[in-house]
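Dear colleague,

Thank you for sharing your sequence with our group. We've completed the structure prediction you requested, and as agreed, I am returning the results in plain text so they can be pasted directly into your records. Please verify that the sequence below matches your submission; if there's any discrepancy, let me know and we will rerun it promptly.
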Amino acid sequence: MRDERFLLDTNVLSEPILRRPNPRVLRRLEAHQEGCATAAPVIHELWFGALRLAPSTRRTQIEGYLRAVVEAVYPVLPYDREAAAWHAAERARLEALGKRPPFADGVIAAIAGARGLTLVTANVRDFAAFEGLRVVSWAAD
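Please find the predicted structure tokens below.
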């Protein structure tokens, strides 16, 4: 799967700044760096998390990581017309089944699904209901 392209979820991009990051995730981030992107809502979640912290060394480190690594390395994909249409169709289908995934998860799934990207997340179950979306975790072997 050398040509596979990935959309990185918030928890995957947060991994390198955890106190004890998962070495499997770090290796895969490095190995697949050129085939990865992220989504605008993920950038929102990362910055929101950082800005909620009190001014501190930790917050400064996180902000530096977001600027120097996340924003400098990974393209940020928007929630555009194709993603909105994909999301609307999936949302309607899931609601008919009595399921209501969080809107933000639907937006992230739609950005990946509309572009044929594999969504990389630690929360595979959160995205399992979406049809036509390949979801993987890099934390497991």
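Summary note from our side: The CA atoms of residues 30 and 36 lie 10 Å apart.

Kind regards,
the structure core
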